[in-house]
Each structure stands twice: as C-alpha cells, then as structure tokens.
Amino acid sequence: MTTGTSARLLRLLSLLQARRDWPGGDLADRLQIDVRTVRRDVERLRELGYPVHATPGVAGGYRLGAGAALPPLLLDDDEAVAVAVGLRTAANGTVSGIEETSVRALTKLEQVLPARLRHRVAALNTAMIPLGGAGPIIDAEALTVIASACRDHQRLRFGYSGYNGDVSERRVEPLRLVHTGRRWYLVAFDLDRDDWRTFRLDRIDGVPDTSFRFTPREPPAEDLAAYVSRGISSSPYPHQMVLRVNASAEALAEYVPPTVGTVEAIDERTSRVRVGSNNLSVVPVYFAQWDVDFVVEEAPDEVKERLRLVADRFTRAVE
Q: How do 271-277 and 239-245 pair as beta strands?
C-alpha cells in the first residue's frame, strides 16, 4: 500500500467517523477520487477490521458500524483539545459514574497529544477551577441512553417526578439535550399530552426504556436553548413579567442567567427580559441588584403594586 493510499484511507476513516451516513458520491467528491476508488478503499478498511456497512439507496452509501473493538479516532487539533478539556470537566462534573473512567481516558489522550496541544490543554486546565455543588448528579448510563435516542430518533419511556412530587409514566419522542451549566434538560414531544415538553433529567426515574424509531417532528423553536430557558425561568411561575431594560443583551448576562430568565436584544443598548417568580416579596429584591434602569412592560397588578410599595418605602427612608 503506497503512502498516498494510506493517507487517503486515514482521511476516509476520518470522514466516516464524522457523520453517520455518507453517499458514495459525496465521499468521492471530498476525497477527489472516483466512486470505484471509494469502493476499493472501503474494502481495504474492511480488511483492516473496520466495520464499514453499505447503506441502501439509489446512489448507495456507507456507514461506519460498531465493531468488536473501538477503532482509532482521528481528531484534528481543536477536537483533541475539546475532548481533553471535556474529560477533565467530566472527572469533576455532574454526571455520576464516569469520574474514574474520564481520568483514565484523559491519561491515555494526553500521553499521545503533540507538545503544542499539551500546552493548550495544560493552560486551560490551569485556568479551570471546578466549583462543587453546581447541580444535581445525573446517572451516566441514563444520559447516554437519552443522547443516543435523540441521535437515532428512538422513542423513550420513563417515570417522571413533577414539581409537586407526583410520578407519572411518560412516552416521548426525544429531540435534544440542553445543559444550563447547573442542570440537564431533555426537549421532547410528549405523546400522551400531544405537545412539546421540557424534562429535567434528575427527575427521570432510572434509565429510560427505548422503543421503535420515529420520524422527527418540526422543532418547537429554532433556538432550543432559549426555548428551554423560557420554559424553566418564567413559564412555571404564577407571577410573570416582561421588562424593557436599558442595557445590551450581553451586559444583562451578568444579571439574568438562562435558568432565571430570557433576554432578547431590541437594539445595541436595549433588551427585553422575561422572568417569573413564585414569591412576590423576592421580586423587588432581585431587581434592586440590577445596576441598570428598566420599564415594566407586562406584569400582574399585584407585582406592580409590590414594586410601588417598596419604591415608596425606600424613598421615605432617604427623605
């Protein structure tokens, strides 16, 4: 096998690892070879033990399947650094059962990293200080099953504890996992309620059961992170407010994390914020921490009255 062929095989393997299915013509275009050469290279990979399967279709294609052993992963510089940092985070993170495994995998990876990448990873590791108690711990097996079901469009069934503690069985079509930095959430279509729902993973009982595949539906929103933020920061609460704030969306990130509210940029200096609360007494305290001016656009009368009472009390205090 020539050096050129070996290099081409490595690139072919890298492409097969990057996407689930590849039409033969697309692989030929990316490798700048003809389809017949692609077929020969696929056969060479099979002879080397890589489980490359043919996929059905008019054009025909290929998929890298699961084999008896994990094949070598081909990572570019940025991917290698991302994996190393991710493993370091996982070793101190909110997913249970993978701390020791993450350390072992990180040790293997750092052993083969080029010097230029080891310096980048070391710099990031030095700068990162984990803060414990950021959120509930998630079972690694449950997280893996849910992530795989999102990827493969498989329905899930699980027991779920609601806000009031009641447990119900849910049958869903999973779409995507969203991580807020404190908690994991699953965006899924609830088949029994015939609507989209957001589920906290720490409230799912055990490892979900998977069933048959489904045809993906139109997502409930283009920006799923913002969709989840709205669902967990304002929708569940009885007192909901919309504010027009004299600050940019970027500046408001200091005051309004995704778990507290959603921020929409109006222009470079003005934003619209949606927040909610269970307790009227904490609303003025929360807004008093903002070092910016704002106008209440929408709010229940009791919220406005509470803000007036507190404002008058502070005014009398300084007079």
A: antiparallel
